[in-house]
Amino acid sequence: MPSDDKPDQKSSQEPAADKAKDSSNQFALAMELPFVLVAAVLVGALMGYFLDRWLHTRMVFTLLLGGVGFFAGIRDILRRFPGSKDGSKRD
């Protein structure tokens, strides 16, 4: 008969391995966040630039959509932090 006293998979990991995994996840998040913000601003500004060229306006949409991209980037950065208010819990 098989034994029901099998060790838990989580308990077999060493605390040092958990700490290394946590710090590497934090480092990866810290390296990713600036690119998220810059990409959001650039996408918004480029969309505004082409819209300005199409409608023959003077940087109205470039500035407007660049600002919208900035706020979208900030929102995305805040969403990626663990324990955010959107209700999702990250491990």
Give structural notes.
The protein has 91 residues and is mainly α. The chain has a domain at 26-80. It contains two helices and no strands. The longest helix is centred in the middle third of the chain and has 41 residues, at 15-55. The protein is rod-shaped. The mean pLDDT is 83.
Brief description of this entry?
With 91 residues, this protein is mostly helical.
Name the beta content range. Answer: under 5%
Question: In total, how many beta strands?
Answer: 0
Poorly predicted tracts of residues: none
Mean pLDDT: 83
Structural class by SSE content: mainly alpha
Shape: rod-shaped
String of helices and strands: HH
> What is the C-alpha radius of gyration, as a whole number of Å?
22 Å
Please, how many helices? 2
Question: What is the helical fraction, as a range of percent?
Answer: 55-70%
| Oligomeric form | single chain
Distance between the termini: 36 Å
Largest sheet report? none
Per-chain topology:
Elements: H1 15-55, H2 60-80
Helix pairs in contact: 1-2
Observed structural traits:
2 helices; 91 residues; rod-shaped; mainly alpha; single chain
